[in-house]
Amino acid sequence: MNAICYVLVRPLSKNTYRKINRVLAETLWLELVWIVDWWAGVKIKVFTDNETFNRMGKEHALVVCNHRSDIDWLVGWILAQRSGCLGRALAVTKKSSKFLPVTGWSMWFSEYLFLERNWVKDESTIKSGLQRLKDFPQPFWLLFVEGTRFTETKLKAAQEYAASSELPIPRNVLIPRTKGFVSTVINMRSFVPVIYDMTVAIPKSSPPPTMLRLFKGQPSVSPNHCCWCHVHVHIKCHSMKDLPESDEAIAQWCIDQFVAKDALLDKHIAADTFSHQQEQNIGRPMKSLAVVLSWACILTLGAMKFLHWSNLFSSWKGMALSALGLGIITLCMHILIRSSQSERSTPAKPNDHHHSESSPQTDVEKEK
């Protein structure tokens, strides 16, 4: 459907195409939101002030986030859905993501930015991609996640790099790669008014959420089997106009924010919550459940009519084709799960930080 609209509608009206694609993308993403909200029962707690919470989704925004777990990108989608802009949630992500079955293709049609970790190429990709968003007809979010997923091995490498470069030693985050962030700010500041500084933390009592556990429904309870898994999200709003002008100052601003995130996560580890900030109620809307139930009914009725018409199971050939179809679906899910696993993310290179030639990438393992 996305491809048909891209070929037939976009040449006539880019804005109309974007509005149609927003609905199509949201319908797809809601299925993953349903997995978190209803199947796995993960509870996301948002901590921010009332002013920030009330303006979310009402204006263009750059969302900067640490990359603590395998599903941080999905947490961003859920917050976008609660803010009414799920179909307009874009991201900076690695190039390989667009080859993921179904979701990767949808990401491409939705104008995600795909980077290669080669600054010579990525600089022009960021600039041209962001310039295309200037005339985006409705408020959008651009998710910009910390360069690579957090692991203890990567943390140790980041600490060694920080010590050798006389930078603050990180404890809970990695050192951000700032070249891409600087380019993003420079190219967006004329039409994007705010930056949402998002910090994701997993409480001590909750098992670490992964795509595999989500599909199995395992995160629905903590190890003591008495409460749902929780993900805590702290959000701070910055006005884009308050950021400095020079490249070096913007890069330092980014580093300073991650130093602040580190301290914030220290407090969260001690208190097991973001106790200094007000918790906002984001609820658990029925929309994703309604979409999944609708799809289930449509597909079930369609499959029954098709099987009745084709007598597919009446021959070995038909059963073989059915098995092949199930195998393809299983393979697609396997690819999605593998792509989201932190141990399979690209290792941080020793020199791949704010003075390197590598661009920051968001590992939106969105199987999209």
General description of the model:
By secondary structure, the chain is α/β, with parallel strands linked by helices. It has a single domain, classed as Glycerol-3-phosphate (1)-acyltransferase (3-Layer(aba) Sandwich). Helices cover 48% and strands 12% of the residues. An 8-stranded mixed beta sheet has the order 4-3-5-2-6-7-1-8, with helices on both faces. Helix 2 packs across helix 4 (72-82) and helix 8 (178-188) packs across helix 10 (247-271). It is globular and about 70 Å long.
Quaternary organisation of the protein chains? single chain
Looking at the structure, the CATH topology is Glycerol-3-phosphate (1)-acyltransferase
Backbone CA Rg: 21 Å
CATH architecture: 3-Layer(aba) Sandwich
Mean pLDDT: 84
CATH class: Alpha Beta
* Spatial order of strands in the largest sheet: 4-3-5-2-6-7-1-8
The end-to-end span amounts to 15 Å
What is the ordering of alpha helices and beta strands?
HHEHEHEHEHEHHEHEHEHH
Strand count, sense and closure of the main sheet? 8 strands, mixed
Number of helices: 12
Poorly predicted regions are 220-226, 348-368
What overall geometry do the principal axes of the alpha carbons give?
Answer: globular
Share of residues in strands: 5-15%
Region (Disordered): 342-368
Catalytic activity: a 1-acyl-sn-glycero-3-phosphate + an acyl-CoA = a 1,2-diacyl-sn-glycero-3-phosphate + CoA
Pathway: Phospholipid metabolism; CDP-diacylglycerol biosynthesis; CDP-diacylglycerol from sn-glycerol 3-phosphate: step 2/3; Lipid metabolism
Protein name: 1-acylglycerol-3-phosphate O-acyltransferase
